[in-house]
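Protocol step 4 of 5: obtain the predicted structure for the target chain.
Materials: sequence only (see below). No template structures provided, no constraints applied. The aim of this step is simply to have a reference model before the mutagenesis design in step 5. Sequence pasted as it appears in the construct record:
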Amino acid sequence: MFTYPFIANFRIDPEMKNAFTAIDRQSRLILIGAAALLTIGMGIRQSFGLFLTPVTKDLALTASDFTLAIAIQNVVWGLSQAFVGAIADRFGLRKTLLAGAAIYVAGLAIMASAKGVTALLVAGGLIGIALACTATSLTMTACARAVTPAQRSMTLGVVSAIGSLGTLAGPLATQAILGHEPWQVAMLFFMALSIVMLPAAFMAGGADKIPQTSTMARASMSEVLGDALRNRQFLVMSGAYFVCGLNLMFLTTHLPSYISLCGLDPMLSAWTLAVIGGVSAIGSLITGWLGGRYPKHVILGTVYVLRSVMIAVYFALPPTSASTILFAVAMGLLWWPGLAPLTGGIIAEVFGTRYMATLLGMAFVVHQIGSSLGTWGGGLIFDLTGSYDPAWQIGTIIGITAGIVQIVFGGPPSRRETASSLQAPALT
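Step 4 output (structure tokens):
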């Protein structure tokens, strides 16, 4: 049977292998449900950029009109994520995940029936709320609660890798439909897929029944939030997350348009997004494995730097089909799902998992502000200049800067900082 060389040579520590075999049936169901939510939800989200050309032509809209709807999706996703996380921590993951899946169905139905920009904006807002309820923050929280700390980093990597399969299949299926049918048919296909998220949400919500035994689990939400807002490690990670969102959503939304402008086969856009999604599964496994062995903040910062370098190299050279696929492979290894074991792992290590959904939501607010700026700003720059050059140049500079800051300042407190905090008078 054929296997990729990396997978054939990949080895899990014996204690890690034993930890996985110890996962009980309830935890397995939680992990399966979380992986299914990620596969469907993120597969749909990954494919929205393919609709830019057919939707704008059919509805007589500009590129910035369409990208504004995607930007609103990301803004709403980000702004609602902390609030949704708090709801999940207070009232339960299952109820929140189920509500999000239902909203996803409604948002896609409105987008499929859109006749102008207003409906696209409304749909974008609803899908943003749905993603806040069903995407990485809550699913990673469910996974983290379902396993022990020893299993956590690799488990988050494996679930993220499985979830990446949707970003592989989604663009290919979407482009295949768009090549023969109106864009509304592809959107209805998405709506049918989103209905499957309902039973997956019910399964993942079983994490509500997993008891939390850490010392942080006994703290109140306000105490944990206060600690987070004073924690340098959390603040640096959240700030660097802004640049992550900016660069990735710029690529997801505008790379298909860039490929088309360069006169390359439109199907190459779908293959590029699919390759990114497929290879990101390997990237998730790698970061999950590395996160269990080495400092997570160093790996995270290195990913940001390498990603920015890859963007600069690709856009600086004349694009070809071969260079585009090679770029997709490189970006897939450094893509967003691979960060989940690192960001989720950092928060779980520092604060525990009791309020992990809320804390991931707070960090994700900043991420989505960057996503919105990358999506809408890229469209605005193109409308004003007729070129994507200024957009990728800005993204490269701040991406490398964010990575360096994450590496240098994103680690745990030094002995001096720890001693200072212990000597500081307690607040009353």
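Step 4 remarks: The mean pLDDT is 83. The chain has 20 helices and no strands.
Proceed to step 5.
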